[in-house]
Every structure is written in C-alpha cells, then in structure tokens.
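Reopening this ticket.

The earlier resolution said the output was attached, but the attachment link was broken on my side. Pasting everything inline this time so it's all in one place.
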Amino acid sequence: MLSSIFVGIVLACIFTRAQVFPNFPAGDVQTAGKPCHIAWSGDKNSTTAWKDMSIQFMTGDNLNMVHLTTVTAGRDGTVDGSFDWICPEVTPNAAIYFYQFRSPHTSIYEWTTRFPIVSSSGQITSPPNSTQPDGKPIPWGTGALANPSIALPAPVFTTATLITSTVPRKPPTSSATPTNIAPEVASGCTSFFTQTSLFCNQITEFFNITIENFEAWNGGASVCNIFQKGLTPGLAYCVAGPTTITADTTTNTITITISPSPVSTPTNVASGVVLGCTRFFTRTTELCVEIDAKYNISVAEFESWNGGAGVCNILESGKAYCIAG
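Inline output:
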C-alpha cells in the first residue's frame, strides 16, 4: 500500500507518474536479530524508472527523516518483488522506523508506514511523540542502531530524468583504440564514443545499438546506473563490440557472435557459483551491497551468479565469487 505518512502528497500525483508501491511491512511488528520481510508492487508505468532501486532503513519525523543504514541496492522495482534481511537491534524499540525506496532514474521517493522493531528479548515501547511537528496526529520518534558501526551510507546520486533522445541514428564505424578508454571496456571493441553528458539511451539510439549490448561491452548492467558508477565524461566507451564472424557456405549464411573472453575458475571458488563466469572476486569482509557497488553490478545479478537469493546472508571470507556472468 502507499505510505500513510505521505498519502496526501502521493495521491495528488498517482495518475501522472511512475511509481513503485511498498506494501510490507504495513505497521507489522518486526523482531531484532530475525529475518525481516520487505515487499513491493512493481511500477506498471515504466520499465526503467525503478530498475535500480535502493531501500533505506529510516527513522525521524515526516519533515526530518534520518537515514540509519542502506538495506539493499540494485533491486528491480519495475516488477513485484521482495527482500529479506536481518533486522538490527535498535533503540528505542518503538513504532518509529520505516523504509525509504529510491532510484537514480526518478526524483520520486516512496515509503512504508512506520513499524516497531521488538528487541531480541521482547521489549517494546510507545513512540516518544504523538504528533508530527506540523501537528498531524502521526506518532513518531528518532531511533538509532544499537551498533552504529554496522551502518552502510545512504545512496548518493544526482537524480536523472529519463530522456528520449531526438538525435539521428548513426551506425558505428571501426576505429583505433583511444588512449582515454574507460576501465572494463571489453577487449576487441571496434568503435568508441567519448562521453560528454549524454544518457545511455541517447548514446544507444544515436549509434543504433541496444542498451544490453552497450552494457555488455562496457563493464556490466550498472554502467548506466549513476548511483553505482555511471558514465564518466571524457572517457571513451565501446559502441561496437568484439565480434566473431563465421560463414556457412552450404547455406550462404553469416553468423556474428559477441562473447566475453573466458577466464580460469579459481581454486577457492565458492559453492553455488555458475559455470562460465568471466570475472571473480575474493571476499574478505565485504557485504553484498558493497561488492555490487564496487563492481557496478546489481544485487540480482550477483545472486543469480552465486547460488541464489540467500547467498548475501552466507558469504564466506576467502572464497571467490562471480562478478561477471
């Protein structure tokens, strides 16, 4: 459901903008130290606006919200989904906590209603304040993590409005490898484009290529995500990828295949890692959200390459995980 915290604001815009709808928890009691469930209904109006959604654990009043930690990032908010995490110990144990949903591709924010987190010993108290600073009868308070050292910072990005490019399409042509090539561009690229201030959809339309190919040639799905990495002005990106061309004289057909270079599987590979991984990372103490941000991939990608949705709760130190499928 829509958050009752901001229902008046949201209803005014509900029919004119792309939205994700947080629907759990809806005031439900959560318990510290146990799995806490978050669920949402996907945005039905856009396939891109909520594609790289982050979820923050918040507290505070309606006008002065306080970030406590980032729960997850890189979630696909264009479809119905859910995420489970272990609720932290907090103080006080009152109904003063909520989740905030954000995406780098839209200026819209969404929230759940406030909910309490009961301590592992069963303690719960009433919210310290019965009305908001503006007088609205919505109980609230400002809580804190019992262990602030576990907090992950809030996502930082400049909100971008989705743009439909009006520039003419132009097929790419072969070129020499420039000296300002961006990191993680695929080897064997046959044409490059130096970024100024364009969005991925403008570049791909101009060069008549797909977003999927552009991402594959330039380091993965998050190259277009300004929250995780984004395009860097002044660097050259691949707009015509490495190709293998084979001819069949019996059928007079030509097949063009675009594929990444294989790599050797390390001896310390974690169980559940998919076959055919093209890049590995050996974990020390990093959390999934930190690994995903560092290597510009989504949580969903990391999970699919490394054993499924529960892998982020059982990461092992010293084990190699796949970061490019």
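Reporter confirms the inline version is readable. The helical segments are 7-13, 200-206, 211-217, 288-295, 299-305. DSSP finds five helices and 17 strands in the chain.
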